[in-house]
């Protein structure tokens, strides 16, 4: 390696010190493939999903991540707490307790919570939101006791019916603030909050409760499958520098997770996706004024 | 006609006293076809769109509507006020002044305003919102002088990038309240606002400034073209009775416009669409406690 390329990789490593690959961005990879991909790409952290984690095995995964020297920025995901019938509610609470234990075992303090949409056939949005609040109250001390924070993810209103009835950061904070900040926090995902006229005020209000900062872009025309409608940073309409600055001003110095659900990104070579993701992170999100590592 | 069927059509006529067909719901019809369709169906009001109005001619349209005894619940639409370059801004303001004059000539006091999205290539949402506010300030007295209210339509955040940077009713009211209520008001469209955790408080706050109440449903899976993603009332997730009650409590006694952009609805026989629309209105929206006519 020449001294010039060595200098340039030193700079890159430092600038990438807070970058995390959310596993969904490289959906075709198994967990070990994603870990190896991060190591090859010099990405120091990963957001892990439960399904591939279960496939690979929890203890093995912990050893693999430790050996690779990767931080786990979050475990995705708990939630789905809106069911009305008692058996389904009990099952959901049990599953969330299992997810909390998995997060603790993986060494991350962040369990991302997608709270769930309206139950089949229901139009009672207020009731669904109330059930989420009840379930969080039940899970919060259990999480805090294990060093895990329930990281409530306000979701874009496009998902209010079928994914997440928490629709704004303000609403998520109204709920989170009923609990100690080491039990319940929030996720700020640019895709979900970028449009909100109150986003700056609410991010400032979230100081001390920001468990995760996730980035991806809002692209138009929106892809036909709304679940796969997220774009690579720079491909859409979001001003990442602005949101990153507000998150930073709120004191957040944790990982910046790139989480992209997109059929084209999923069909591409994952190593190439990681290269582009690093490039776009440096171009759109990173700034020399950022603290270089968590 | 038997006396039984006569009694039943009397009841229906009274229950339909505030129902309005927004012309977009029967997109295949010309203006005269839509007017005749409303008359045949016993629908007493219509929301008119500018393009078919221009096609048919303003003076002729006014005569046609008067002869048919139809109220014009709104003219759709003004807006698109986010351009950055001076010529485009001037053109937009001129076009909005023309729309205000057309509304006055048609005898409606409501010009629905879709304010516009981000200009091509721009990520400056704050700037776009500021330009909307400036343009409204320029147009408001002109509208008020002609007996027309600029009815700001907060749009679902799904459209923040490409249609309307006013994303919540609260944000629309923050702007509207800077002007007299006979100059600037708001549109409440169930599709755009149903998900908002603050919707009840903001509708209450809108008392005296509600220029139009539009209904259609949020359906899932969302159709591939987001512009055509609206459903017939009852086909989706919106609790119309709840929102109608809050709008009523805010003192609104105007027309209830059914506005559905949907490829399947557009492909159906328009007379059949009107029949279904009346049925669903009576089933989902209407309540005996509503004032029967504006």
Per CATH, the architecture of chain A is Alpha-Beta Barrel
**What do the pLDDT scores of chain A average to?**
94
**Quaternary form:** homodimer
User: What fold name goes in the CATH topology slot of chain A?
Assistant: TIM Barrel
Q: Note the run of SSEs of chain A as H and E.
A: HEHEHHEHEHEHEHHEEEHEHH
The biggest chain-chain interface is: A-B, 32 and 32 residues
CATH level 4 superfamily of chain A: Divalent-metal-dependent TIM barrel enzymes
Shape, principal axes of CA atoms of chain A:
globular
> Structural class of the secondary structure composition of chain A?
alpha/beta
Q: For the terminal residues of chain A, how far apart are their CA atoms?
A: 29 Å
Number of domains of chain A: 1
Give the strand order of the largest sheet of chain A, numbering strands 1, 2, ... along the chain. Answer: 1-2-3-4-5-6-7-10
Architecture overview:
The structure is a homodimer of 294-residue chains. By secondary structure, chain A is α/β, with parallel strands linked by helices. The first copy, chain A, has a single domain, classed as TIM Barrel (Alpha-Beta Barrel), CATH 3.20.20.150. Helix content of chain A is 46%, strand content 16%. Chain A is built from twelve helices and ten strands. Chain A has helices at residues 3-15, 31-41, 50-56, 58-68, 86-106, 125-145, 169-176, 190-193, 199-205, 240-249, 263-267, 270-285, and strands at 19-22, 45-49, 71-79, 110-114, 149-152, 184-189, 210-215, 217-218, 230-231, 256-258. In chain A, the strands form two sheets. In chain A, strands 1-2-3-4-5-6-7-10 form an eight-stranded parallel beta barrel, surrounded by six helices. In chain A, helix 2 (31-41) packs parallel to helix 4, helix 5 (86-106) runs parallel beside helix 6 and helix 9 packs parallel to helix 10 (240-249). The radius of gyration of chain A is 18 Å and the shape is globular. The model of chain A is unreliable at 1-8 (pLDDT under 50).
């Amino acid at each position: 390696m020449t001294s010039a390329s060595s200098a340039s990789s030193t700079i890159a490593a430092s600038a990438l010190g807070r970058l995390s690959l959310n596993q969904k961005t490289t959906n075709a990879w198994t967990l070990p493939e994603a870990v190896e991909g991060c190591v090859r790409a010099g990405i120091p952290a990963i957001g892990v999903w439960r399904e591939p984690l279960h496939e690979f095995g929890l203890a093995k995964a912990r050893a693999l991540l430790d050996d690779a020297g990767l931080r786990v920025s979050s475990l995705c995901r708990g939630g789905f707490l809106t069911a009305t019938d008692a058996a389904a509610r009990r099952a959901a609470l049990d599953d969330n307790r299992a997810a909390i234990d998995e997060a603790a075992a993986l060494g991350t303090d962040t369990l991302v919570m997608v709270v769930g949409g309206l139950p089949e056939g229901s139009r009672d949005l207020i009731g669904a939101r109330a059930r989420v609040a009840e379930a969080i109250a039940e899970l919060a001390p259990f999480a805090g006791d294990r060093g895990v924070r329930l990281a409530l993810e306000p979701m874009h209103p496009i998902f209010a019916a079928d994914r997440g009835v928490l629709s704004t950061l303000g609403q998520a904070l109204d709920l989170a603030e009923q609990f100690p900040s080491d039990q319940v926090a929030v996720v700020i995902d640019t895709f979900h909050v970028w449009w909100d006229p109150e986003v700056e005020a609410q991010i400032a209000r979230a100081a001390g409760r920001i468990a995760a900062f996730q980035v991806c872009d809002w692209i138009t025309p929106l892809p036909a499958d709304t679940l796969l409608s997220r774009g690579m940073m720079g491909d859409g309409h979001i001003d990442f520098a602005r949101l990153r600055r507000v998150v930073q001003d709120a004191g957040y110095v944790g990982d910046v997770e790139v989480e992209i659900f997109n059929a084209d990104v999923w069909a591409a070579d994952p190593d190439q996706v990681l290269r582009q993701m690093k490039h776009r992170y440096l171009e759109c999100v990173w700034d020399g004024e950022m603290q270089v590592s968590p």
